Amino acid sequence: xxxxxxxxxxxxxxxxxxxxxxxxxxxxxxxxxxxxxxxxxxxxxxxxxxxxxxxxxxxxxxxxxxxxxxxxxxxxxxxxxxxxxxxxxxxxxxxxxxxxxxxxxxxxxxxxxxxxxxxxxxxxxxxxxxxxxxxxxxxxxxxxxxxxxxxxxxxxxxxxxxxxxxxxxxxxxxxxxxxxxxxxxxxxxxxxxxxxxxxxxxxxxxxxxxxxxxxxxxxxxxxxxxxxxxxxxxxxxxxxxxxxxxxxxxxxxxxxxxxxxxxxxxxxxxxxx
Amino acid sequence: xxxxxxxxxxxxxxxxxxxxxxxxxxxxxxxxxxxxxxxxxxxxxxxxxxxxxxxxxxxxxxxxxxxxxxxxxxxxx
Lengths: 273, 77
Hints:
The complex is a heterodimer. Chain A is an alpha/beta fold. Chain A has helices at about 5-15, 40-50, 95-105, 130-140, 155-160, 185-190, 205-215, 225, 230-250, and strands at about 20, 25, 30-35, 55-60, 85, 110-115, 145-150, 165-170, 200, 220. In chain A, the strands form 3 sheets. Chain A has a 5-stranded parallel β-sheet. Chain B is mainly beta. In chain B, about 10% of the residues lie in helices and about 35% in strands. Chain B has 1 helix and 5 strands. The interface between A and B is medium-sized, with 39 and 24 residues.
């Protein structure tokens, strides 16, 4: 095989053949990252760059009129380079989340929203009834709703029916770093939904991300797993590789698990004893 | 704003949850300019209505007891 042929053969078999598409828009990375909790904006930008992410989440908050005017993310993130996905973090009712989504849309970048309706301060678990109501209202208003939800199949199905363009079940609670608590639930949601499934929250380290992607989900959104690492830029690099590795392993199809050993070397051709 | 010989009439309104006094007859654009905020980097809600057209800011007049919310994007997950 000529060298060029070998290269093209490699790129065809070593990469993901399926584009990552949500609501008709193709994204270049299956890893989406948040922008919270960094100790400096410079480090945040370096970590996002290292992660290879295109979709970057931001929150909507009051401008602090008594502080510096450059604390806004738009002073640091280039909206031409990243796809800004506003969240409704901190909202505890559907009405509040809808208001924040509308404010985010008025910023003028896109009509997408990572919808959160939180039900409990201690666990930050979603209020699924409020989430469903807000998804319906916002989808009817033309929003592209990516709904942060529990790892509950029925809620996921209802969110899809309500018009969510992607459903985002948690791996474990926001900021917990506990990894994926229920792989069976995540797999089931992925198998039953038509819209993309993006696991959001709970990924603590690269192996967590890899195992999540091995379930066949379409992508992962994470923030604390990178931002709270001792070296966020290095962890962002690890996460980029882990998401790719997990995706490739899923596509490759893992070997069956067996509870007995099977030799890898021939049992025939052994010398006489 | 200041330094004028003529005493300006002031009105009080609520901006981001705090009472503030501004000169009467200021537009929303005047307010943002006084706060050194770039209108392209913020979103404004005026008495519960989100203003999607930034070009309208110079024509939005502010009145006594108006409620103004000025928000922007910050870091979040």
